[in-house]
Amino acid sequence: MPASTRKLAVGAAGTALAVGIASCSGSLPHHGAQGAGGANAVVRLIGDGSTAYTGNQPGVSRPERLKPGQRPPQFVVFSWDGAGEDSQKLFSRFRKLGRKHGATMTYFLSGVYLLPEDKASEYEPPQHARGSSEIGFNDSQGIKATVRELRRAWLEGNEIGTHFNGHFCGADGGVGSWSVKDWKSEISQAKSFVKHWKTNTELTSEPPLPFDYDKELIGGRTPCLEGRENFLKAASELGFRYDTSGTGEQVWPDKERGMWDFSLQMIPVPGRAFESLAMDYNFMVNQSGTSKGDPTMHRYWGDQMRNGLIQGFERAYSGNRAPMIIGNHFESWNGGAYMRAVEETVGVVCARPETRCVSFRQLADWLDAQDPKVLAKLRTLPVGQAPRQGWEAFVAPSP
């Protein structure tokens, strides 16, 4: 990622093994962006012009309720923690990949990636000194590139969520020790860095982000999957619609504190006697324990993750059709093995009939459109278990 002080812990997902408005202030042409009204549509700037109203998000279809007897689609959500564009150009790579395969994704932005190093003191992390961050900050070029990718991603139907800011994990002030008040401060600052990136960088000639972040931001994933209990309390009071900081199995989601629980899921690790969370970091920890493992094993490890993801997909696809939740980082760990694994997985699963590769926002919209009684019924299906009487009878209306 852009930060010079980036550490391996940025990807830590906790347990590795199976046991584990602002007011408008003017308008300007839409700078050639397609969708949201078209290339020549007029946008309304918000605040300092870092963000703007551009109408409904393009590339997002209206959710439909399942018809009686209809088998549910197989949803797959590919999500990215940190979401910044640096010299590796992984953000742009996977944004283009999604467009190629008709997949939309969720990008969890770390707010400090829109804050330049010389403005670090603008960040007041809970329980830490002002201006500190475990993942550093950014520079003007990095911010310009990241904003460009965020803009394009949203216009292509992707979601921009949050991975918060300083990525503090473990003891000594890690997010696991944060209070509800601490979380509210962190969330407020994450929003502020997005809403004021022009002021903080003086890149005033750049086009705005084409969304109102107060409305766009409806969910996130906590650093290292820590601090979830108090985060949920804060997020529910702030109107978040989902959280994806938990761990669980491949079953249909339910709500917790009024928010959809999109926990990361346990999936097979081919050739091993345990399962792992469907996240690149966890596969890396289980395989090498380091981001720079034996180069002769890189292809094997990448294949192992790809095959595990596809096995997890097939288990759901031919079974209970539970949405599959996959988490990743824009990192070249073990020679880029996991980026290749995800890229190949997208190419396989998103092409399958009745499969929808979508963002968390789109999944939440679809779930909210369903009959609660049908969702309750779907939640009775165990991992990999299709209805014994067939989908037509299982999803039929009650007599």
From TrEMBL:
Residues annotated as signal peptide: 1-18
InterPro entries referenced in this protein's UniProt entry, alphabetically: CE4, Glyco_hydro/deAcase_b/a-brl
- State if Signal is listed as a keyword: yes
Q: Do the record's keywords include Transcription?
A: no
Which keywords accompany this UniProt record? Signal
Segments forming a coiled coil? none
Q: What is this protein called?
A: Secreted protein
